[in-house]
Amino acid sequence: MDQIEFASEHMSLARRYFLQLGLCGVALAPTDILAMAGENLIAAPSQKQRPDKAGARREPYFTPQDEFRDVSRGKPLPHSLSEEKKRSVGLTRETWKLEVLSDPDHPASLGKTLIKADGTALDFDALLQIGEKHAVRFLKVMTCLNLGCPLGMGLWEGVPLREVIWLTQPKENIRRVHYHGYHNDDPKQMFRSSLPIGRVLEDPFDLPPVILCYKLNGEWLDSERGGPVRMVVPEAYGFKSIKWLSRVLLTNLAHANDTYAEQNNDVDSMLKTYAATLSIPKEVKAGEPIPISGYAQVGVSGLARVEVSLESNTLVRSESDPYFTQCSWSDAQMLAAPQRWGGLIDDSLPANTHGIDGNGKPKHWPMRFTNAHWAVVLPGVAPGEYMFRCRTIDEKGNAQPLPRPFRKGGHAAIESIAITAKET
User: So what's the pLDDT on residue 377?
Assistant: First the structure.
């Protein structure tokens, strides 16, 4: 998506909000407010959405597969292999097979195993047959534990992992599920992740199930996105949603074996709630209103509201207030669910999508594990240098970066952006 196309789409984000403010007594006429918004969104490159936030745009809401930001691992990257090589290693729908077996080092008690050697491994057609009865769909933002921006927003579809695990007739001594994907037949490149067996077999707090995913936004999952089949864990960061899935081990081991654990990350951390900007002017005319809009990642703690602050740089900040609790905060306007989902048949959400009602509308907005959007028009300020900040307040009343401010458990830092107000 180029910058002008984004600016046009993002105008629909703020248009109704800015227009509503104009009709409610804002000093500027509605047309002036919209013109200012348009100037701020289109006039200068520094005022448009940054490329690394493409996964946070307002409309169309879902990110096309080829526009997801990619952080894949592998030398060479598995999705870059030739079609012939992909066929030979099971990275096509026609050749994909999944093994599900007991961990030989910490064995689980199973009635049977699904392995390639005896022809019992699960193939793609068999997975789709299970999907005819058990397929689920849910909205999820894919985001990396160590990045402060989303990789993309999607509608993911697949079969609950538990339906495949039950095929092995599990009996006892199963505490975790370990899994990995194809990484060039090189043990040193293998990227692993794991989940407690309880999370796989049961969905707490109305979460969607962990799935073996084969569709994104209604289309077959492409190779770059981890196709033909990947794991998708609704509440988790991307490292749990292993691409190019090839093997699942049922284990009696009590702890995680995640590659990310070896790299000093918190592998049990669920998505955090935080806010960031999408459109903001770096330079404004003194005394004129300042239109700003952005997004919030809605994590496991939910989202009650977004707050904003604009402070003069002449203020002396206390070093004992690292979370900016002493700033003067005010509410931004949370925007409604998207009007355009994008990339779907008839631009409508399929029936039986988790969290969506019979009319194709979210039962609750903002939805957990998705992006929501906000906008605000700040009053004009005197000439000078200022710092803009935004933060979320979750459904428990915690202000970002709380309740989990630690970097190893995912990004939640408060964004700070300098704004210069110049004489008119």
Answer: 97
